[in-house]
Task: structure prediction
Amino acid sequence: MYKQRDIEKLWSKYEGLLHKLQDEKINELLESQGQRIIMGTYSQREKEQFCGIGGLVEYALELAKTSSNITKALNYDLNKASLVKCSLLSVLGRVGTIYIDRFVDTTSDWHKEKLGQYYDWNESCPKYQVNDMTLFWLQNFKIGLTWDEWNAILLLRDNSSEVNKFYGSHKSRLSTVLCLANEAVLKDELDKIAGTYTIPF
Result:
């Protein structure tokens, strides 16, 4: 069975950090889509990180914390609000579209027992890049982004992707920090030591 989480605690922290941004549009998004966000899983199988209810929010909070640590380590003077905003909202595209969930519960007992797979791709959900759908969510809720914030969310993906190669020489520092943080968060948990993260460069 995948990890059981205290979703009330996770949501309180996630929502509380975003409320501090004092953005009416973000608050509207949380009110409208909060249930889907907190119920969302980051991955499909129990052996994969952040699988299960609350997985998306747990990942987003880890990304925010790690981004903050890396910013300090690199001695970057980044806007803290932008760091929190991008870290916590970057997961929206993993929820699905505005109306359709990206993952559905696996109905196959065999997949659960043999593969530890608890979620299937929702065939009713259009195929898309997570980052692109995140930006669509933000546009749909009329949440404004600075150039650096847009750049950071767009490029928070596999560094080998064609998009990252194209924009590579124009990465903002915010984007660099989030990409490093993402790599660190997704590393094997055994490589992490109580809040200390290895910066992957």
In short: The beta strands are 103-105, 119-121. The CA atoms of residues 1 and 45 lie 9 Å apart. The mean pLDDT is 89. The longest helix spans residues 55-74.
